[in-house]
Amino acid sequence: MKERNIILGIDGIPFELMKSLSEKGIMPNFKDLKRSFYFREMKSSIPHISSVSWSSIITGKNPGEHGIFGFTDLIRGTYTLNYPNFNALKSKTFWHQNHEKTHVIINVPATYPAKSLNGVHIAGFVALDLEKAIFPKKYSYILKKLNYMIDIDSSLAHQQSQDKLFDQLIKVLEIRKKTYQYFWDKLDWHNFMVVITSTDRFGHFLWNTYHNSENIGHSRALQFFQKIDDFIGDLRDRLKEDDNFIILSDHGMEEIKQNMNLNTYLEQENLLKLSNRHKNYNRILEGTKAFVLDPGRVYLNKKGLYPNGSVSKEDEIGVIEELKKIFHELKYKNQKVIKRVHEKYEIYNGALIDKAPDLVVLENPGFNPKGGIGKKIIFEDDDFSGMHNDSAFLFINKDIDLKTPKVEDVVGLLGGNT
Ligand SMILES: [Zn+2]
Question: Using one digit for the tens of pLDDT, what is the confidence trace for 189-227?
Fold first, then answer.
């Protein structure tokens, strides 16, 4: 009998929320599952964002090996922003490690453009063109028939209409369900992975609707999570006896208190100097010691690497110490906002560590670290309601011995030699 693996990704749902939704009876299907099997908090990637975390989940590698450190990067040797996509992923996904087996992969973030595989792949966000988001192309008519959507229309989030947003989230969720059901029946597969991303959008735009029971959107939030649970139940009911069923998130979510414009802080501390000519990071002038890319990735402005590089090899250790000190000193209303500053060697290993940020700043709850250039003030309110944290979760329907699971561990749990 062949051993199959079914992976359901639920983007942006923290361990505590998943636990409380099931305990409060809002997610009865998941409650049943978690009662008899393994369910734990899982540490997200560093930084805890979807592109990095999913890249680790599907390859079993850390960013120093797979090369995805964020949604953005700089083109090597320049200050020009670049958006790494699936082609920039330098480690093999589990579906590219085994061509003997058939895989169905739906909506995994950061897997655009879709590449050839034995099976079907529909890429998740950021996916610019639906035609390039599916392999093989012969199935694109199915997506059209299903009115397939990769993501919700996020512009709705700025129109202050909670109802319209909820309608979209549920619509996209239902389309995802129909799509997975189609391919579930259509192919004889070994590995089946589908990711729900409506949950992350819920977290960013509507987090308070669930967490504040007075909120007018509260009942819709409960209804939304019931739909997520229906999705889980629908999958569970299709399982065969020997199937491995994994449910996981890539990172968690929490209420946002303030955005922190870290480059503005570096400017105030005289570590970042900007011209008024050019745009974005191209404004960086000589004399700059460091700059930050989203979310809290700090790069030394190294001589010989960047056009206006100003930190020599001998000065690197000193600048790193200075940066750590000032980040630890940063306060909002007397409250420390940075929990930890990691050096790259503490958190990454592998051949691509050269591309890694020199430091990664981890925030205290609610303080959202930002890159971006030219903001006037350090601390700012945000229109959004939620921001990521590092508390993901992992469920699997068997007994395993993993005390503190990490996103890199997931591939190792797949049965049947993937
Ligand atoms: Zn998100």
Answer: 999 999 999 999 999 999 999 999 999 999 999 999 999
Ordered by start, the domain boundaries in the chain are: 5-255+387-413, 258-380
Distance 388 CA to ligand 1 centre (A): 6
Distance 199 CA to ligand 1 centre (A): 9
Confidence class for position 417, pLDDT limits 50, 70, 90: low
Ligand 1 centre from 198 Cα, in Å?
10
Task: Report pLDDT for 342.
Answer: 98
Protein residues within 5 Å, CB atom, of ion ligand 1 = 200
Domain 5-255+387-413, CATH among 3.30.70.640, 4.10.400.10, 3.40.720.10, 2.40.50.140: 3.40.720.10
CA of 314 to the centre of ligand 1 (A): 38
pLDDT greater than 60 at residue 136? yes
How far apart (Å, rounded) are the C-alpha atoms in residues 416 and 243? 10
Please give the distance, rounded to the nearest whole angstrom, from the Cα atom of residue 172 to the centre of ligand 1: 16
CA-closest candidate to residue 110, choices 9, 252, 181, 221: 9
